[in-house]
Design brief:
By secondary structure, the chain is mainly alpha-helical. It is about 65% helix and about 10% strand. Strands 1-3-2 form a three-stranded antiparallel sheet.
Amino acid sequence: MEVTRWLSADERAAWLRLVAVVELLPGVLDGQLRRTSGLTHFEYLVMAMLSEAPERVMRMTALAQCTNATLPRLSHVVRRLEERGLVERRPCPDDGRATDAHLTAEGWETVVAAAPGHAETVRRRVLDPLTPTQVRQLHEIGDALLGELDPEGRLAVLYDPDPRA
């Protein structure tokens, strides 16, 4: 019989603070992007990933992986972005069974216009309250947690887009 390893008071306090951040931060980011750009945070993430891809094109399966989305969820979001003229879906030229998502010129302009406000919100709400030492610690904590939560590096394109750097 396995013994439950209960959290100590310090561990519980740290855990509950992380839960509160995980719950509050998405609403803060989503609210700012909706107000200033008419985008959800997830729509912005999808468009940002496309904006950084070669020729602003990604296979839908790769886009789903790097945004941690199921294909049905991603397809629904891309359909909404298509309706706004921000993204197009096209057959993959290398594999007729696959579909590529392409960021349109209007989509590029939209994500470029949204980026400064998003960066300012991240800075003001997450980074500015921390000291430089705490920012480094946050990086290290993120690496430690991601080593456990994402051992295969499925989302590495988000947090380590150029592992050689």
